[in-house]
């Protein structure tokens, strides 16, 4: 990519990062316009309408690239717009976690640096993970899919309207710790079937989720493989000791942790809704595959 003027389809999540998404997004829009780019504002009242507007702009060839401003949820939205195409994706990281942006080496909560990368930077092809929903539509994620205790906590927290913010998740963790039981899984990797009871299963294309949790520290965005982490059955006190180590990636040395690698993964479990890039994704069972180089990121 050169610094030539482009038509940038910009989608801003104003509530990202405790409402800093609007400020950083607007600042980035002004800087992009000052750099000579044409800004096509594709933001909307919610994500579904933003996706609709962006897909129409892409279909009409009204934009040359898509730029999202927000957290991992906005990266997820952008990936689902451009995956499998040559449309580049720019990321203005303005969320709370920003795991994918950080692990890709992008600027975090810095509009000027993000705009500089978008305007003058190179491009990088990264892998993305594709599944097909029950309606036959492709759905994609680029970071980590959670399908165990972490996903159960998310589902619990998202069912509450109060309290707001991190406290809601803290309460959800406390609630689940009292009732959580090891989950019977079937984990199939490239056709090899594994049956186990586990506390947590994660499919990783990137290394981190949840605001810096290095769940699979060796996962790579461009190796053409998925890393599947299984935390096999342990006691709740052991889970409480092991889980905090995820912030430094030190949990992987625990004997109950197993990491499998492959290109196609199928997960089966009862009553589990998976979360990918922090967004509610698909209920199990589900099958996904890595697609090498599926997304072009402005870096």
From TrEMBL:
Its cofactor is Mg(2+). It holds the Pfam family DAGK_cat. Gene3D superfamilies: 2.60.200.40, Probable inorganic polyphosphate/atp-NAD kinase, domain 1. PROSITE patterns: DAGK (PS50146). GO terms for biological process: phospholipid biosynthetic process. SMART domains: DAGKc. Belongs to the diacylglycerol/lipid kinase family. This is Diacylglycerol kinase. It comes from Knoellia subterranea KCTC 19937. The lineage of its organism: Bacteria, Bacillati, Actinomycetota, Actinomycetes, Micrococcales.
